[in-house]
Structure formats: structure tokens, C-alpha cells
Amino acid sequence: MKKIIALILALVMVMSMTACSGGGASAGSDFSKMNVTCVVPYDAGGGTDAVMRGLADAAKDSFKAITVENRSGAGGATGMLYGANAKNDGSIITMVTVELTTLEAMGNNAGLTYSQFKPIMMVNSAASAITVKADDDRFNTLEDFIEYSKSNEVQVGNSGIGAIWHLAAAGLAKVAGTEFKHVGYDGANGAITDLLGGHIDAVAVSYAEVNSFVQSGDLKVLAVMANDRLEAIPDVPTAKECGYDAVLGTWRGLAVPASTPDETVAKLYEIFSNAANSDAFKEFMTNTNNVIDIMDGASFNALIADQLEMYTGLVADLGLKVG
Predict the structure, then answer these.
(1) Does domain 129-224 have CATH number 3.30.200.20?
(2) Is 154 in contact with 125 (CB distance < 8 Å)?
(3) pLDDT > 60? residue 19
């Protein structure tokens, strides 16, 4: 009888130890022993890619290894869907962007919804900058650009149809009483490359994404769609100052599948918020003209829900819903 009791007690202890040590949730709590992949849903070279790589570099000491993987396509839906359906142990982290809401509002989301994610934190935000070639004498002000578009076709590149830079340009056109021909790319980098080559007339991406070409004298910014002028380009007016009440831009943050345990998310928030507040990341963001804008997971989730409602209304007003 004693042997049976002892055997039962031993079995209970083994089962308890297995329960404590098994599964993705608890295994994921020690990230120093884990290889982590950060998914960017756009091509390499764009603003989202740059911010993710800068943050990953600042957080690298907290993981066994951390890598950034670009999975572009469908205006960001391809990469975000991959991340939403990944393992829930924290080993796959997705940099979600405002397109998580705009694509759903457009009906062009391939089944992607924000409810498939559990947000970790918001990292950064940026306003649209209407940018053209520096030697394009047709456009020296935003007013020039708008007036020209009323009697001529103007091709404006963006990071994907239904993506924020598409909606930003469409929103400006609506306010200004004009129309643009929208040209979509899988990320801002392709749009900027075509602008430099003279294949399109303008882009509506963030200033951070065109900064190096503005500094080199290849491009010029006509206006930014922000409430206030940007510190990096104080001489460039806002669209509102030019008479067009359009304030639109993006945000970027980290998220994991919705089924990820809360303790895993909390640990990831601790790691990445420390990285985002590090001197190295602050210096990187300053040097790349990106704005650090940190928000915790709960607040970020509330923002996403609010913006889905806002963009659903904007898409309806613009007649852009595709499904």
C-alpha cells in the first residue's frame, strides 16, 4: 500500500512539473533562450522596415537571437496574416501598421482583422508628406500641385492600395475638390524609386521615408499632413496652413496572435519598451527622422478600434470600399 501511495505521489509530482514547464506560454517567458522573428509586412527599405530593424537591434540582448523578416504583399495583409496565424509563444512578433484598420475598412483585407492580434505596444507615428522631384518646376507649393491636378492627371504613389498613404492622398484630394491617379506598391520604397525615376508625379509617404533624398537635393516636400510643422523641416507648411484641412498619417507597433498568454505579452512589452526608451534607439529614430510614440497594449488596442471606425467612415465617404 505504501508503495502504491508513493507511486501516486511521484506521478502527481511529475504531472505538476510537466504542467509548469510545458507549452509555449511558460517556455516563452525566458526569451534569453529563444530565437525570435519580427515580421515586417512590407518590402525592405521602407519606414516600417527601418523602425523594426532599429528596435530589434536595441532589443537584441534580451533574446538568444532576433531577426527581421519581410513578408510583403496585398498592401500589408500578407505579412500581418502570417503573424496573426503564427505560434502563440512569442517567437513570432509582427510589426502591425495602420493598414490593419484601413484594409479592413476597405474590404480588401483577405480575412485580416485586428481582433486576430493581441497588441504589445505602439512604437511610432508619422504624418503623410506630399513629396515631388526637386527639379519638377510644375510644383513648388501644395497649391500648385492641387491646381495642376484639377486639369491634368497626377500619379501619386503609395505603399499599397488601401494602405494609409493611399487614403492620405485620397483624403487630401477629397478636401481639395480634385482627383489623383493612385499607384500602389508593396511598401513605400518602390513608390519612392519610381518617383526618383520620373515614372510618377508624387508620393504621399512619411517624411522619414524620403528624408535622405530631400537632403541630397533629389526630392522636395510640398506639405505635411500634420497638425503642426515637423521639427526636421520647419520651413515646410502643413496642408492645413495651405488651406486643406487634411491630417492623416500612420502608426506602427508590435503584436502577437490573439491567443498568446498575457504573461508572455507582458514580458515582451517590458523588453521592447526598455529598448524603445534606450539611448541607442532614440538616437536611431532621431537620425532617421522618425518619431517615438509609445503606447501600452491596452491603449494601443483601443486606438486600433477607434481608428477602424474612423477609416470605415472615410472609406465610405470616398467610395473606396472594394468588398
Answers:
(1) no
(2) no
(3) no
